[in-house]
Amino acid sequence: MPERLRLVDLVNARLDEFLTERGNHLATIADELDVFLDASRDLLSGGKRFRALFAYWGWHSVAGTVRSDDLLAELDDHPELDAVIDLAAALEIFHAAALVHDDIMDNSDTRRGMPSVHRRFEAEHARREWVGSSSGYGSASALLHGDLLLGWSDELLAQGLSRVADRAAARRARSEFHLMRTEVTVGQYLDILEEVAWREAPEEDLLPRAHRVVTYKSAKYSIEAPLALGGLMAGGSEEQVAALRAFGLPLGVAFQLRDDLLGVFGDPSVTGKPAGDDLREGKRTVLIALARAALPGGATRLIDELLGDPDLTEAQIRTLQATIQESGAVETVEQIISRSVAQAIAAIEDAPLSRSARSELIGLSDLVTRRAH
User: Which Gene3D superfamilies match (predicted)?
Assistant: First the structure.
């Protein structure tokens, strides 16, 4: 745990340094651009740094087998530690960009207990009584902010890869980042497509389609890709990177399934999001697909009629929550989470990865799937 906290401190320091540099550049263009820096700092001040942690331990799982089997404290003098910290920070900025865009698409009011970025810009427009639509200005400004963060994540990644002595390893990591960026973007599209086009799909296809969204929108870029990026940056062999992927994908699925449960049943004071937020947004998750398959026709019609209504009352939210509970879908999702975690752990038990990294990854598997927010 101390190593984990110290790693988070290193990543936070790199983020602060990077944002200060970019903020100084924005200040040379126009004073009005400080809104982008302020929004970036606020958004990046929160979060659990899971992607950063998995990137580091993916790197360590390979680097630790070459130098030693020691923890972070013993690797402070590693010549490429700065490179992996850059990678970890780049992933956090990429994640922030995805959150900004996600909140625009989902019309979300809050993120991490604060107004979402488009609501932040919208409120500024209204407060200053500017010309035109406050909501239009908010969405357009947030879209640009998300794009700016995407560009910054690539800049920071390039900085990290420039520090890697093994240029072939750097190229492999760059290709992995490109793949991750493509997959999460199309995964996000599949998510919004499922919200509007699900009626066209045969009933038996709804669950695999929901699982497809889990895989590409979240599981790969949340855990599998950060692990693979770290391992590739360290020059990992095909066997080592394959083991990291075999661990990361099922764990990423479990991670997102936990998130889906929190999106329906999470405590707003803990999650920072309104209760039942995924219900108002109409998320066609694995949880919903399982509930629909298990319920009688009347209850299924109730879900279909209410799901996706942005004006759901608290009473309607409670009704939907009770209906989903009664279907047995929550217990089924919990079972899938448990099986996925077990599958992930089994994938690295005898893998050629550093002993301390394997131990830390097992600890992280528990952390990311048992969280309350």
Answer: Farnesyl Diphosphate Synthase
- 355-369 vs 238-265: helix crossing angle, rounded to 10: 20
Q: Quickly count: other Cβ atoms within 10 Å of residue 202's Cβ.
A: 7
In the chain, the DSSP E strands lie at 110-111, 114-115
Q: Are 79 and 254 a contacting pair, CB within 8 Å?
A: no
pLDDT of 204-219, one tens digit each? 999 999 999 999 999 9
Region of residue 54 (left: phi > 0; alpha: psi -120 to 50; beta: else): alpha
* Domain at 167-373, CATH from 1.10.3720.10, 3.10.250.10, 1.10.600.10, 3.20.20.80: 1.10.600.10
CA distance 278 to 261: 9
Place of tokens 């639509």: 133
**Cβ(49)–Cβ(89) below 8 Å:** no
Please give the Cα distance from 365 to 14 (Å, whole number).
Answer: 25
Residue 141 structure tokens: 């400004």
Q: Which CATH superfamily is domain 1-45+81-163 in?
A: Farnesyl Diphosphate Synthase (1.10.600.10)
